[in-house]
Amino acid sequence: EGTGLVSNGVWFPPVDVYETEDDIILKAELPGMEAKGVTIEVEENLITLKGERKFEKKLCDENCHRMERFYGRFQRVFSLPNSVDKNSIKANFKDGVLEIIVPKIYGAKPKAVKIKVE
Fold first, then answer.
1. SS3 17
2. Per DSSP, what are the bridge partners of residue 50?
3. How does residue 108 score in pLDDT terms, banded at 50, 70 and 90?
4. Sign of the torsion angle spanned by Cα atoms 17, 71, 41, 37
């Protein structure tokens, strides 16, 4: 029973994205994975998280009653604003949660511009 989520396609881990005064923070749930199985790439204004959770066939040869976890490759892509320091991004992985901290550039706050309507 279950949905048998071993896939040749790509699955999408849940990710929270929020902002503090100094940083943009992304937190991805990746239970059962290790840091070495995750890749983070920044290109232009996109940050990409990708990796693969291997299916443990030995655990489920013939006696599997339910499969609800996703296995296989995953990928998530997020846009970053121009006002971040891409060279100072940090990441840590603890208890199955990947946290990516993207520092904002000070002084890069958006400014309001008034447009005259004629």
1. strand
2. 39, 75
3. low
4. positive
Q: What are phi and psi of 103, to 5 degrees?
A: -70, 140
Give residue limits of the domains in the chain: 6-103
CATH class of 6-103: mainly beta
φ, ψ for residue 47 (rounded to 5)? -115, 130
d(CA 27, CA 14): 8
Ramachandran quadrant class, 2 (left: phi over 0; alpha: psi -120 to 50; beta: rest): left
Tokens of 104: 């904002």
Cβ atoms of 53 and 35 within 8 Å: the answer is: no
What tens digit of pLDDT does each residue of 60-92 get? 666 777 777 777 889 999 999 989 999 999 999
Residues in the chain: 118
DSSP assignment letter at 60: G
Of the two residues 57 and 45, the one the predictor is more confident about is 45
Does 59 score more than 80 pLDDT?
no
